[in-house]
Amino acid sequence: MSETTVHESYSFACMRCGSGWEQSYEIEHHTDAQGRTSVVYLADGRIVPSPLSRPTCHNCDGHVVRIMRPGRVASARKAAAHGPYAAVPRQAGPVEAPVAGGVDERRHWHVADLLHALHLHRKAG
After folding, report:
1. What are the contacts of 43-46 at 24+ separation with CB within 8 A?
2. Residue 11 within any structural domain of the chain
3. Would you say the pTM of this structure is higher than 0.70?
4. Deepest of 33, 35, 101, 112, by most Cβ within 10 A of its Cβ?
5. Alpha-carbon separation of residue 78 from 9, 18, 35 (angstroms)
6. What's the number of domains the chain is made of?
7. Is residue 97 part of a domain?
8. CA-closest candidate to residue 72, choices 27, 99, 46, 111
9. Ordered per-residue pLDDT tens for the chain, 125 residues
10. Structural domain boundaries enclosing 88
């Protein structure tokens, strides 16, 4: 049995609730003695389904999820924090308590915030 492992990361944005997150995967490609191949996805050391087959939102369990190259959610967060609209108060929406000692990487973003920041990032680059 042979095995090859590759590492891939993706950014995700839920089109239903607006959550945004990033995840890295170890992807193991196995070939058994009969030549049959199989693929195993691991996230944080746990076996998970392929994120490309039917991604699920961790916030609302929705399946209308946009998959993007890695870093898109992080760049949208940065742009939202430092962009021209960063100081503009938002209307009612989800509020999350700050995390002691740093940024909570699980913070959920609204689709409009992500798309606006991605659009500004694309124009700048």
Report:
1. none
2. yes
3. no
4. 112
5. 18, 17, 46
6. 1
7. no
8. 111
9. 568 899 999 989 898 988 888 899 999 999 988 989 999 999 999 999 998 888 999 899 999 998 888 877 766 666 666 665 554 555 555 555 555 554 445 555 566 666 665 655 555 54
10. 2-92+102-124
